[in-house]
Amino acid sequence: MNKHPESAEPTDEHQITLRGPAELADALPYLMGFHPNDSVVMVALHGGRGRFGGRLRVGIPPVPAEWAPVADQLAQCLISGSERRDSRPDAIIAFLCQDPAEGESPSQVMERLRPFAQSLRTACGARDVPVLEALCISDGRYWSYCCPDERCCPAEGNPLALPGTTVMAAAAAYAGIQVRGSLRDMEARLEPLGTPAAQEQERALDSAGARLVSQILDVQGRRHVAEETLALARKLIERLAQAPAARPGESDAGDDRLIEADEAAAVILGLQDRETRDRAAEWMEGSEAVGALRLWRALARRCVGPYVEHSAAPLALAGWVSWSTGDEPGARVALGLALRADPDYTFAQLLHQACNEGLDAETLRRCLRGERGLRAARGDSALEGPVGSGQPARPPLPRRRTARVPAAREKRVARETAPASVPAASGPGTSHPRSPATRRRTRGYRVQSRRPMRNGR
Description:
2 domains, Cytidine Deaminase, domain 2, six-stranded mixed beta sheet
């Protein structure tokens, strides 16, 4: 008798039945859209045949003392989110994915993570939802924490199947589903540049900040900066569109070479203004979206040194364009990094959680098209015209009535998991960004001055 559960992944036309831990382990990258490095993934199952439902992912906490409380929050988040969107899960499958550290074997990884797996099983069981299978995946092998039979689950683990040879791989190829490499690879594509390019970019950001701050303090100057930012961003998008894009797995160094340090600095600092950023979000579909996504990714890599927090704006825009064009895995990665750069960045919170809730991106696109149409009706340019009066603009994204902001650990779980509530849209904020160079000159006032520094919430 098979000691492991069966689970089915439905599609629009047929169902794929997965039998046993081997096929479950092989299916994980197709469920997520990437190989989830250093992650715990939980998937809800519904019905007697184990239909896949909501799923969530969060990085494995490095401190074992955090495992039990994180497991409790993950269980609550997945179960409550499934109840809101579909129905209460009948069971859950858990995956713990982590490669060995230096000097550590895959088997030692499995044993080290065993208490975390047990915490997940206990937390779900306390809510009357059993964990039917808990798998550890490390260095191309997998182990079951639930099966005691060493004939099918030996102590040394079992090797994963070769890529492209499983039932799930065949079904995914037929459905056009692609695995975009590892989570680590996807994040590396958006990480800050290394030296010496980073040093040149930091100097350009310092210089641009010194030039722009005085202008942004004035209402007319702020409008002028917004116009310049949007015009320069449009110019860079057109420049990138004329050059071939990097293929999957290739470096984006070609895009980086097409953007000068001072150009990147001017757009990065201009996007810290909420209204300017919302205008830039209108480049979300068609040919505009392709070039815009390449630009936002390139700008995220230019947020170096003390300017890392500024990457929340281009990363959030990259996540929005990815979601708008149907790349949900890419959207979640970019938005997760935006929240890592600035956990309180409401624009990224809203988009990340709306994407994970399964909301239709067309609703947001319709709002942005409406804003663009209103400006055109007033005679303003849809791309390079004035941002508007000194009054806060109407936010283009719909508001949700969610007043409570979770505690620090809860926020980390909520922003990286699928079933999470959508927070309220961003408020008008303040009116001017400040560069890290300015912060260094007024270090004693950094806490008090942080909010006026950036208004891109």
